[in-house]
Fold DUF7001 family protein.
Amino acid sequence: MVDHVSLYRAPTTVADGDAVADWLHERIDASVAVRDRFLECYRIEGLPEWFAEARVRSPYERATGTTMLGTIRYEERALEHPEREGGVLYDGHQIQQALNAALPETESELEHAHVVLLDRAIGTWGEHDGRWHKRVAVLGQPAIVSVPGLYEAPAKPEAYYREKQTHALLSGDVPPREVLENQVGGEFLIEADPRTTDALKGYVLAAYHYLETGEAFCENDGCRLFDAHYHEDLIAAQLREPEFCKEHAALYGD
């Protein structure tokens, strides 16, 4: 049984870890504490190499990583100055292994859940279609909740991609996100969206729920524990009432 949750901030993002922790504390029978950025709290030797090895090379190539000195130097700088990192996709399971190795032995038991709000994009390999898929969360110990993944992992409305392609053909470049948002119907989250904190709450709860019950995500698309693959579904699950399906409302409802 989980009796304590440590939630780690992502200070380079708009995610409010304290607000997420307050929401979580009201719904679970465990203490909740907010800590600073995980990679500041626990810095072990070899982390830059771990991150370099977890880099996704190509959307359709299963192998990851590079040992090039320049890449390792990049990862060293990203650890020191996370605001400069971006545009790289990492194998979520490899990053999880690296962060697990960084946990002190006294806090590694499953009774103490660690949930890392991460300012990097993570993905998992799809055996069914032979390609990488961006993810919002990888559950386990520690659980990783990717803030960029919230914007990038779920598919946006089809009109978004049509407008993006049309603009690229006519002008040779990609329009800013805010332009696409104004021109495309349907709801979706964009980078630094003010709804980010609220949208992350269900994923953080899912991290606790997984260690507590062994259940990953809910199959009901009207529940905060639903792992949405489309932005419309994410908004419906995380930002609309009711918060939970009947089963999970009995556990986490008001």
In short: DSSP finds eleven helices and eight strands in the chain.
